[in-house]
Amino acid sequence: MRINIVPVTELIDDTTREAYARDGAVVVRQAFDAEHVQWATAAIDANLAALSPRAKRASAVDDAPFIEDFCNWQRLPDMERFIRESPAAQIAAELSGSAQTRLYHDHVLVKEPGTRQRTPWHQDQPYYNVDGVQNASMWFPVDPVPKESSLQIVAGSHSGPWYMPRTFLDAQAKWFPEGSLADLPDFEGDMERDPNSWRILSWDLEPGDAVFFNMLSVHGAAGVAGPGRRRVLSIRFLGDDMVHAPRRWTTSPPFPGLDAELPIGAEMDHPLFPVLWNR
Questions:
Q1: Using CA atoms, how far apart are residues 135 and 14, in angstroms rounded to an integer?
Q2: Beta strands 243-244 and 130-131, pairing class
Q3: Mean pLDDT on 226-247
Q4: Which tens digits make up the pLDDT trace of 259-271?
């Protein structure tokens, strides 16, 4: 297995672990070297050239494209190589305090120059079929991203509660039944009235930098004014306490047939979710 130039134990110290536990997100500067960036870039570009049936456009037809796709690691060699051979899984284990890391899924997000569509505030875990707290999502742009177009995290929001997941374009409750979870606060309105009402984390990012955040952390992102693209590879990692939580509805991403193979509360021991790192 390839060893990163800077050992993960030097990238992730006690201060970084404490920040992740407190805030639900950290930036890891130069987590990946030039070759890792090359693998991730090739994976994103190969995905864009051959979108899966799960791909969707998350911006309006009169806007520049915002393209998302999921769960392509088994058909894209560069994607699998990055997932298995980069230090991402070990970083996720160090941050989540896990002895073992499994892959949950890959997620490509590309906003072309001029995309006005904001990624709305949301948590990831309510869209999923997993429960537990030891997890990490990686948000890794292969293009330089200024702070105004970067990921934004509401610090401490991973502590709960769960908020209602909704579709990005038309705010429909397609997952949990309407009214069964609280709706998201009006973060912008609250901060206009009191700038200290919420602490928002965001960073300028260069290729090699990555943000890691908990699946319950509320996050969003602005559009991309240009001239550059914003190509992001996001990988979701499952730590020690993450278990299967079958839903009555189709999750995002979907895992059809998994309910028949893994019972409720089971470890995610399945070929779709390979172990990537062990302590």
A1: 17
A2: antiparallel
A3: 96
A4: 999 999 999 999 9
Paired strand residues for 243? 131, 267
Nearest alpha-carbon partner for 214 in 87, 123, 91: 123
Q: What is the pLDDT of residue 177?
A: 86
**51-69 pLDDT per residue, tens:** 999 999 999 999 999 999 9
Token pair, residue 219, equals: 């996050």
Query: What is the maximal distance between C-alpha atoms in the chain?
Result: 51
Strands 135-141 and 230-238: antiparallel
Strand partners, 219: 122, 153
216 and 123 in contact (C-beta within 8 Å)?
Answer: yes
- Specify whether the CB–CB gap between 186 and 128 falls below 8 A: no
Boundaries of every domain in the chain? 8-254
Q: In this predicted structure, what is the pLDDT of residue 179? A: 86
Alpha carbon distance 113, 116 (integer Å): 9
Per-residue pLDDT at 5: 56
CATH no., domain 8-254: 2.60.120.620
**Encoding tokens for residue 263?**
């019972």
Sorting pLDDT into bands at 50, 70 and 90, what band is 9?
confident
Residues 138 and 211: their CA atoms lie apart, in Å, by: 6
